[in-house]
Design goal:
- The chain has one domain.
- The radius of gyration is 19 Å and the shape is globular.
- 74% of the residues lie in helices and 0% in strands.
- By secondary structure, the protein is mainly alpha-helical.
- Helix 1 packs across helix 12 and helix 4 crosses helix 9.
């Protein structure tokens, strides 16, 4: 039991860190003039091919039950529109800021679970959400006090909402019984149709101009898509929707790491404080859900009847 939960927390962290790589691979394609729909078409198409090949090599079944068709379609569309709204927001604000605002989704997941499924928000969950939210606020607050673009904020909030509903939907539908790779493959396949339609049957599809940029397209399909989705589905099954969403707070930490190491961004005291709060939030939710604690402390942290059911 505890081994399964520990694996779930690890998978949640991997999913978060992988998804945080979106700007690293998407922005070079934008810089070369490739449009949002084309970038996402390549992302989803290559991800479907990579995951399908992996399933063939591992001799995994592609079979679906009739009752899974509708929830799979809904989940695939939700994830695809979450990507679309997020990538469109990159055009109206700094990608790092958009990637941090996105992580209001743990709060949305907790609210959906509490209101829609009467799941009790434990002290550990509430404290983790507050700490993570405070850390994210420190990360995305602009140093010069500039006002954020309203359309960009609305787009990234819509992305966050779609992602939150996706997480809850996977946990609360018949899809929870599907193998992780099969669930991910069909979610991506359904999501791909969104960009086929938006590109008018690929008539408006733009070519990737250089070999290094093809490398970005493949990496975008592999890490923030295949690895992130497979790991997220595995995490949701083992620890539940809310802890998996809270672990998503590691994503802006990933963005920060590559910003400092790759693009030479400055690590300020405010940003370091935000990272520390996020890591504390993640540590709290993991400790509350996996360790054997004294009864008084376990009760205080809300292990009983909590969101990890």
């Amino acid at each position: 039991m505890h081994s399964a939960k520990s694996r779930g927390y690890l998978l949640g962290a991997i999913a978060a860190a992988s998804y945080g790589l979106n700007p690293l691979f998407a922005l070079p394609l934008y810089g070369a003039g490739v449009g949002t729909d084309s970038v996402l078409f390549y992302r989803y198409l290559l991800a479907v091919l990579l995951l399908g090949l992996l399933m063939l090599v591992q001799r995994r079944s592609f079979a679906l039950r009739r009752r899974d068709l509708v929830p799979l379609t809904v989940m695939g569309l939700l994830f695809s529109f979450s990507s679309l709204f997020l990538f469109e927001s990159y055009r109206y604000m700094d990608a790092g800021i958009a990637s941090t605002i996105l992580f209001l989704y743990p709060v949305m997941v907790a609210v959906i679970m509490a209101v829609g499924f009467r799941e009790r928000v434990t002290p550990a969950t509430a404290c983790s959400i507050l700490l993570a939210s405070a850390g994210i606020l420190l990360l995305y607050k602009s140093g010069d006090g500039a006002t954020l673009n309203l359309l960009g904020v609305v787009l990234v909030l819509l992305s966050s909402l779609c992602y939150a509903i996706y997480i809850v939907g996977v946990n609360r539908s018949s899809l929870g019984e599907l193998p992780t790779e099969r669930l991910t493959f069909y979610s991506l396949l359904v999501g791909l149709t969104v960009y086929v339609v938006r590109l008018r049957g690929c008539a408006d599809l733009q070519a990737v101009p250089t070999l290094p940029l093809w490398g970005c397209a493949v990496a975008l399909a592999l890490f923030p898509t295949v690895v992130s989705l497979v790991a997220l589905a595995g995490a949701i099954r083992r620890i539940g929707s809310t802890p998996a969403a809270i672990l998503g707070a590691l994503e802006p930490v990933t963005a920060l790491f590559f910003g400092v190491m790759v693009f030479g961004e400055r690590l300020t005291l405010r940003i370091a404080g935000g990272v520390a709060l996020i890591l504390l939030a993640v540590t709290l939710i993991v400790v509350a859900g996996t360790l054997h604690l004294p009864p008084a402390l376990r009760s205080l942290l809300g292990k009983r009847g909590g969101a990890s059911r």
